[in-house]
Amino acid sequence: MTNEADVTRRLIELEQRMDLLFDHLQLDAARLADEAGQADQGDKLDASQLARKAGVLGPDVRALLDRGDKPGAITLVREQTGMGLSEARRTVEQIMGGS
Question: Is the entire prediction scored with pTM above 0.85?
């Protein structure tokens, strides 16, 4: 059984890791939190929309789609974001629909 000190230590560790990840990806945590807050108020943003808005997906995804390589684009989205297959597929399809 974990105690409160263990949970607090783990939470601090996770926050530090998130800070490093955001710095590495050059993401603005405040802007993402603001967008997530807007999603809570009825304008739902799923993970793929949030990733696209945050600029996580690079131009390589678009280049693959321009060449007609949808499976390659899905694979790249999964690698860049850690999304599952269905979420990455929806993301690619959203990108294709927004062209």
Answer: no
Q: What is the pLDDT of residues 59-77, one digit of tens each?
A: 888 889 999 999 999 998 8
For the chain, the structural domain boundaries read 46-97
What distance in Å separates the CA atoms of residue 48 and residue 65, rounded to the nearest whole number? 16
Tokens of 65: 């789609």
The secondary structure of the chain, three-state, reads CCCHHHHHHHHHHHHHHHHHHHHHHCCCHHHHHHHHHHHHCCCCCCHHHHHHHHCCCCHHHHHHHHCCCHHHHHHHHHHHHCCCHHHHHHHHHHHHHCC
